[in-house]
Amino acid sequence: MGNKVTITWVEETDSTQDEVRRHIREYANMSVVAALYQTAGRGQRGNKWHSGKGENLTFSMLALFGKDGFPPIPATRQFDLTKAATLGVAGYLETKGIECSIKWPNDIYVRNKKICGMLIENVLEDGFVGSSIIGIGLNVNQKDFPPGLVNPTSMSMSTGKTYDIREELEKLSASLEEWFGKIFDQSRPDGIDGFYEDRLYRKGVTCEYVLCSDGSVFEGTIIGVSPDGKLLIKKKNGELNQFAFKEISYII
Ligand code: BTN
Asked: Least packed by Cβ within 10 Å: which of 104, 167, 179, 234?
């Protein structure tokens, strides 16, 4: 099973997500395509992803399942991929001395600022994940961000150091490889779930959230994440609610 990361750098592309998708048959499991610059980098909720040329890591990793890749994952467990990807980035940042948490579902935060965003695009086939393109934008050396971005930060802003992005991608890829391997490690009964919840931003902290359907604000406490990736929040009145992505937003 070829589960080792191989990295290809391109000077410029529209989006590494689309670059991988266009050539998906040519790439093996755990291929990484990284770009020095994306002309149309995509973020969550249809947003653009901004990244200064050559300053940061913008890359996509292909995960394949079945005979050419990892063991099959049922669609109901697709959130495991989000857990492995976020834990891979968080574990790597920790080795750099950067303390971070995972803002559900897949942002990485340093205190109240976003250092990394992810766009995970899964293709489902007959109730299983056929392939997944995991797009990661990690702010590395950038210190000036365009106005309008919400709370950006970077590794350089956290540590005062400047990094070689190619070397850092090698290290980050090794961490991702390790955490993807852990999804299939049967020796831990709770798998990677506990690790994800331990790193969850604002877990156990009572604060306000916005219900996207009507803009109302409510107070609640994050208590965890369901197996299918919904955020579990206990409201002030004791009611337990679960929210899918885009159903609530944080007030930061
Ligand atoms: C977000 O937080 O909005 C998600 C950002 C994801 C950005 C990465 S950069 C590499 C890959 N290619 C893209 O076009 N998007 C992802």
From this structure: 167
DSSP conformation letters of the chain: ---S-EEEEEEEES-HHHHHHHTGGGPPTTEEEEEEEETT-B-GGG-B----TTTSEEEEEEEEBSTTSBPP-BGGGTHHHHHHHHHHHHHHHHHTT---EEETTTEEEETTEEEEEEEEEEEEETTEEEEEEEEEEE--S-----TT-SSB--HHHHHS----HHHHHHHHHHHHHHHHHHHT-TTSTTTTHHHHHHTBTTBT-EEEEEETTT--EEEEEEEEE-TTSPEEEEETTS-EEEE-TTTEEE--
Q: What percent of the chain has pLDDT over 90?
A: 89
Lowest mean pLDDT among 92-101, 177-186, 206-215: 177-186
The whole-model pTM stands at 0.96
Decide whether any atom of ligand 1 lies within 6 Å of the 119 Cβ.
yes
Contact 158 CB / ligand 1 (< 6 Å): no
Q: Distance, CA 235 to ligand 1 centroid (Å)? A: 32
pLDDT at 121 over 60: yes
